[in-house]
Write a structure and sequence with these properties.
The chain is built from one helix and eight strands. The protein is mainly beta. The chain has one domain: 2-Layer Sandwich (60s Ribosomal Protein L30, Chain: A).
Length: about 140
């Protein structure tokens, strides 16, 4: 296990509200670039008209795509923002609830908001960097950087 102190003093907290039709992965990435976020976490609730989730296949070193083509509640959306190659990179996991009460979850690859998504972003005054991990094929946070 490794750790890095991320907060010892002031931090910035943002409310980022998405409207119907917005794409939250691209929107949060653009927001992070605009506000120069380098080490942030976020949580969100709301709803999507559709989404694409990902399940990481260790053998293939790639995400299997899971299409969700119905109105769903965003029961929990959590993630972080770190720098990869000098640009903000989002890592988000989501749990979605369907009309029947069943839940689906995974890595959030894309989605369309309907009617809203309420995101709280907390920025640390420190920064985090992602580096390519050859074993997994993923860009993982490297706290030594």
């Amino acid at each position: 296990m490794q750790s890095k102190l991320l907060l010892q003093s002031a931090e910035r907290v943002f409310a980022v509200i998405f409207d119907t039709g917005d794409e939250p992965v691209a929107g949060l990435t653009a927001f992070a670039a605009q506000h120069k976020l380098r080490a942030s976490s976020f949580t969100a609730i709301g709803a999507f008209s559709e989404a694409t989730l990902g399940y990481f296949d260790w053998e293939k070193k790639d995400y299997e795509r899971i299409a969700v083509r119905e109105q769903v509640e965003v029961l929990a959306l959590v993630g972080d923002i770190a720098l990869q190659d000098g640009k903000p990179k989002l890592h988000a996991h989501v749990v979605l609830g369907g009309r029947d009460g069943n839940a689906r979850g995974g890595h959030l690859l894309s989605a369309r908001v309907r009617p809203t998504l309420e995101v709280i972003v907390t920025e640390s005054p420190s920064h985090l960097t992602r580096r390519h991990d050859p074993q997994s094929g993923l860009a993982l946070i490297d706290i030594r950087a």
